[in-house]
Amino acid sequence: MIHVIAIITAKPGQREAVLAEFRANIPAVLAEDGCIEYGPAIDAPNSPASFGEDSFVVVEKWASPEALKAHARSPHMLAYGERTKEMVAGRVIHVLNPAA
Predict the structure, then answer these.
(1) What total of structural domains would you count in the chain?
(2) Domain extent at residue 24
(3) What is the CATH number of the domain that holds 40?
């Protein structure tokens, strides 16, 4: 299993629009072979550290690196990228192995 933490930064004022597109795509992603977990998260109120009001974090778990690669090439992810490209300022993706 691998873990993915993706930090998505929307252009100012666009986070909710990007999240709406993201949420619409969740059922297709969860139906992919090898998807264990996939969902967005935002800063909790009064968090001691913050990603910021324009950012959200995607928490993912995949059965294998191959499943993650297939996810990245899937038609629904390519379409999501196309729909959101003008709203996204940047993204950082961390692919992690479990340490325990």
Answers:
(1) 1
(2) 2-96
(3) 3.30.70.100
Beta sheet of 2-10, edge-to-edge order? 35-41, 55-62, 2-10, 88-96
Residue 100: pLDDT band (50, 70, 90) is: confident
> What is the amino acid identity at position 30?
L
Does 72 score more than 90 pLDDT?
A: yes
- Secondary structure of residue 8 in the 3-state scheme: strand
Give CA–CA dist 98/53, Å, rounded: 29
Q: In the chain, which residue ranges form alpha helices assigned H by DSSP? A: 15-30, 65-73, 75-84
Q: Which tokens in the block code for residue 58? A: 């995607």
Q: What is the pLDDT of residues 6-44, one digit of tens each?
A: 999 999 999 999 999 999 999 999 999 999 999 999 999
Structure tokens given for 76? 């629904």
Assess contact for 13 and 93: CB atoms under 8 A.
no
